[in-house]
Design goal:
single chain; 239 residues; alpha+beta; four-stranded antiparallel beta sheet; three-stranded antiparallel beta sheet; 8 helices; 24% strand; globular
Length: 239
């Protein structure tokens, strides 16, 4: 299968390949409790998924600043999440809807649907991380003042099973967020502004992945000399 995918990759562009021949062949047979989540990827990542499945990039291959941020956050995990194996450094990332974040420097992107076990996947609020990380910086100066904020982030992480059961999407002029239902347990967070799914399954089979859509954006090209994107980069590398 891997050789077949590599041959197609060399011979055609992504638009001319019927990905359903190689991806999603087991969607009809996934366990009934599995649910859909979504992520963006590039053409070369799809080829790698066909060949190897979807897995977490090795820690040593990540950008040093990105790895340092993830390790920093992981050090503040509560025991309940450590015991469940939850780790930002060890996760495959996704979102709960097909409206995946558009990452810069990519003119062609693919949106994938993944079938995952909701009891092995967890949801945190990426809005919290996006607001906090820039104030810390790669050198992590003044770290002590943010310990409480890191702990608060982890306290708000819930299982994907609980997220799907107890939250509903709300669209407002200010944007989209997710509110806890009136029947939700009181211990759960009241709101998620940018829910981000951390999938802790080591490898997601290509049989449980399918291409939802391909998008090409010609008018958003930028200078790749200033913002290089290496072949093989994944969503985890760009976060």
């Amino acid at each position: 299968m891997g050789q077949r995918a590599d041959g197609l990759y060399r011979a055609y562009d992504g638009a001319s390949i019927d990905w359903s021949v190689m991806l999603g062949t087991g969607l009809a047979d996934v366990p009934k409790h599995y649910v859909s989540v979504y992520r963006e990827c590039s053409l070369d990542e799809i080829v790698r998924i066909v060949r190897e499945g979807l897995s977490v990039p090795p820690a040593e291959t990540r950008h040093p600043d990105m790895r340092a941020e993830m390790e920093l956050l992981d050090r503040h995990r509560p025991k309940r999440l450590i015991d469940k194996g939850v780790s930002r450094l060890g996760a495959v990332y996704a979102v709960p809807t097909t409206e995946t974040p558009r990452f810069p420097f990519r003119n062609e992107r693919y949106v994938l649907e993944l079938k995952v076990d909701p009891e092995e996947s967890f949801v945190g609020d990426m809005d919290f991380i996006s607001c906090l990380i820039p104030f810390i910086g790669a050198n992590q100066t003044g770290l002590d003042r943010y310990r409480g904020a890191f702990q608060k982030y982890w306290e708000g992480v819930v299982s994907l099973k609980d997220f799907n059961a107890h939250y509903r999407r709300i669209d407002t002029p200010e944007g989209t967020h997710w509110m806890a239902k009136s029947t939700a347990p009181a211990k759960l967070p009241k709101t998620f502004f940018t829910p981000e799914v951390m999938i802790m399954t080591p490898i997601i089979s290509p049989r449980h992945v399918r291409v939802v859509r391909r998008e090409v954006t010609e008018n958003e090209r930028c200078d790749h000399d200033d913002h290089p994107v290496e072949q093989g980069m994944t969503w985890e590398d760009e976060r």
